[in-house]
Amino acid sequence: MSHQVISLKYRPQRFEDVIGQEHITITLKNAIEKNRLGHAYIFSGPRGTGKTTTARLLAKVVNCENPIDGNPCNECTICREITEGRSMDVLEIDGASNRGIDSIRDLREQVKYPPTRGKYKVYIIDEFHQITKDAFNALLKTLEEPPKHILFIFATTELHKVLPTILSRCQRFEFKRIPLLQVIELLRNIAKQEGIAIDDDSLLLIAKKGDGSIRDSESILEQVIAFSNKDISYESILNILGVIREEVFFSMYHVIIEGKADKALGIIDDMLMHGYDLLEFVTVFSIFLRDLYMVKAHGSADILNTTENLKKEYSELAKTQDAHTLIRMLSIVNDEIAKISRSSNTKILVETLFIKLSNLQDLRQLDEIIGQMKHASPHTNPVAPAVAPRVEPAIKTAPAAKELTPKIYTSPILNGNIKGSTPAPKKIVVPDKKEEPKIEKAPEPVESNGVNAITIEKVKDQWQAVVDCVQPQKPAVASLLCNVGISRIQNGTLVLIVGDEYSYNTIIRNEQIICSCLKKTCGVQLLLRVEKNKVPDTQRVIKKQEIDKATKQILQSFDGELL
Predict the structure, then answer these.
(1) Which of 59, 267, 358, 510 is the most buried (most CB within 10 A)?
(2) Among 538, 545, 539, 477, which Cα is nearest to 512's?
């Protein structure tokens, strides 16, 4: 006997065997038992969810000689003929190849003739949405008032393409994707009956690859059995299906967080070398980010359908990550997927995407710009970092010397600078009585670093100069420095206070640039330490400015507040 594929061998023969569609099978059984059967049905939903199988079961039970509790007996001649696909009363038509008006005209002529053996003549039309508009219109009258012995069952994966006039004449049933746990249980039972040894992790991988389709999952299992014979391992399934290992996405995420764009590009090159599709890689990476955010939001990895080892890795990684950053990354990746799918140069777009993700902390967001606007004066450009008035050091120098002669331009002739003329008298500059500049005594240094001493007052006075120094190199960092507080100088270390996690991480990551600017402006090499706390107004270096009258009116009108 020739081999029969799993999807046909284990096809449901009773309504109870159709998994995941109880809302449909129960309704159909009740309609049959109460003799309230319709004349036309539309079964719609994703592929491999049981539409054609349910249609055949319905065709069998309405023609069965000995139905049992709303199910076909599967023993009578009519049931066997329908199961084997040789019944003259059940006609399966492919809507893709019989989509024209001529095919529908032939159908209208055939429905006039009664069934040869059973009670109903059943027409099952697959891919019903591919029938042309004219053919739909030709079917309307027959569909609305068919002969009593006719039953139409239409199956489609794209219900939105069916004309509303057709939909209004049929009973519609929406088939759902099969839940993952039910697919795993079905595959486990099939493997047991086939004498195949397979672990739960492998079943989970096959079910996830099937994406809610029973037929796809069974086809993958068939392929895996052909490759591995009687003993199936998780590694063999990864190789057969070309599934990218979860460890790759963990590695990619780590190099992105560390800002190592070169290593991210190296991982992309490895994907290409192993023959993986980059669009699929980006798509699965977005799923990885989504799963990581779900674990972060729920505080537990039990919400994920994955192995126990991976659940532990997700949990450990989620504890150290910022939810706001995950949302930003997920939004950027999902926006780029559509562009990548339409592009002819996928590699460049994918590399650009991961370079952007690696430099995510340096990308300016709307909330950062708004934060700058809060500290900007009415005449300041809102996009540029807020600049406070520069405070000069507390040193008084002598005023400029007074000139006895007025500053009036005279020509060389009038000055006598010609041959034989008397030179004009030179201007006599008499200095002011205060001959030496008087320097106010500077405050005593708080801490000394080597030879030079630095005071916290001097650092505060020069802080705007530090911000201006950082601005050309790191605009986002300069914006954050406008909102910090200066706590103290201790053992040659400047202690800053910030109010949020994002500012803390960003300043820590750019410590070298800030220290370099401190040395340029203050003349002293200081180390940097950042503390997370609410920034008191007494320690805030650049004070918040009062909002103008127009802004106050807007806030009052919308009952809002300035964050």
Answers:
(1) 59
(2) 477
